[in-house]
Please model this.
Amino acid sequence: MMGHAQAVDDCNLGLGWLYYALTRIARPERVVCIGSWRGFVPIVLATALRENGNGGRLTFIDPSLVDDFWADPERTRQWFRSFELDNIEHHRLTTQQFVEGAMHLSLGPVGILFIDGYHTAEQARFDHEAFTPLLRDGSSVLFHDSIRPDTSLVYGEEKSYRHTVSLYIDELKRRPELQVMDFAVDSGVTLVRRVPNPADRVPRAAGQGLPSSLRRSK
Ligand SMILES: C[S@@+](CC[C@H](N)C(=O)[O-])C[C@H]1O[C@@H](n2cnc3c(N)ncnc32)[C@H](O)[C@@H]1O
Model:
């Protein structure tokens, strides 16, 4: 329902496959997810963390501003437990409140940051920059609702607002130190990673990594 191209009929996670695969590939110890309607993204990410088997944990930040779905800590725990997940720490706070006092800096390196909170360019920038000190080479940042401006009624008609995350993404695309890839499916998601430092690349012997049939004979 919330723009990740999921389908119940054929048990298709849609963009969730991407979130799951990135988490299984990177095996992060810490993932942060900002904002979620009913938990699709934190559930997919935390399931992948559990299946990695290395104790990875997910920090979920959501002040429950749409309705009271995330308001009661015990109900939230039960909801995640019903998906056999006990590796999610929910904070009923805005990102602004969460990072006040810089306690978040003690979370340790963040392997995946998923940004799906308030969808203005200003808030997307705030969410991104608040966690940038915790990102490392190889960390992935995903922005949801990121490929086009749109009008959201999620907080009610009287509080309708413009999604402008795509304007922040346009800005990131102009930064040479970043790799930025849009997945223009449903509401869309954009993957942002730091360009790997060429000095960190292991030099390859000529032809290494190619099938033997393609290697040039001497
Ligand atoms: C429902 S989700 C997905 C957004 C949706 N696609 C839309 O149209 O806006 C947005 C979530 O972000 C949370 N949220 C809003 N402002 C936030 C903030 N400043 N920090 C963290 N989460 C926030 C809300 O509580 C909500 O659950």
The chain has one domain: 16-199.
